[in-house]
């Protein structure tokens, strides 16, 4: 009896946590949908084109609604020992599991497609904003410094970018010395071409 009570209590607490996560995602999703610019201003820059394509706000609302319903059914079913609510709870869990397996299979099958999609999204953003948008440039500098990479593919991503047009050189990360991680002198096309630096997509 004590074991059953413990399991019941743990299930209620676990599902209450899921319920709270659902409420949080719903709140953030509604915030992003209603006032996206203020959200981006606080939590960091994202490409506006990517924001429009992915529709992050609607995704968060959908995910939050599922977690909200799941947490509520779990708490209610465990507290009242309602078989119908518990059956619905486990049915939703099963559907989520099936969806995750399907998503994993699709990800394995369409890895190249996803890479081409990201390339078509990220590279134009670099060419348009790197060197002119302070936040965007800072994010990419931090990424390249942390991953020891150069752009999404290589130094050619920065050709025709505001940074290249202004300085006529590539970011120093594209010519970093593998021994100490620093670039010596301006990062010209010849030097960047001779430097072995991995890409962010690697």
Automatic annotation (TrEMBL):
Keyword Transmembrane helix on entry: yes
Annotated compartments: Lysosome membrane; Membrane
Membrane protein topology class: Multi-pass membrane protein
Main location class: membrane
UniProt entry keywords in alphabetical sequence: Glycoprotein, Lysosome, Membrane, Transmembrane, Transmembrane helix
InterPro entries linked to this entry: Tetraspanin/Peripherin, Tetraspanin_animals, Tetraspanin_CS, Tetraspanin_EC2_sf
Pfam families registered for this protein in UniProt: Tetraspanin (PF00335)
Gene Ontology CC annotations of this record: lysosomal membrane; plasma membrane
Transmembrane keyword on record: yes
Residue spans crossing the bilayer: 12-34, 54-76, 88-110
Protein family (similarity comment): Belongs to the tetraspanin (TM4SF) family.
Complex formation: Interacts with SLC19A2. Interacts with NTRK1/TRKA.
Chain's role: Structural component of specialized membrane microdomains known as tetraspanin-enriched microdomains (TERMs), which act as platforms for receptor clustering and signaling. Participates thereby in diverse biological functions such as cell signal transduction, adhesion, migration and protein trafficking. Regulates neuronal differentiation in response to NGF by facilitating NGF-mediated activation of NTRK1/TRKA receptor tyrosine kinase and subsequent downstream signaling pathways. Plays a role in the inhibition of TNFalpha-induced apoptosis.
Name of this protein: Tetraspanin
Species this chain originates from: Neomonachus schauinslandi
Source species taxonomy: Eukaryota, Metazoa, Chordata, Craniata, Vertebrata
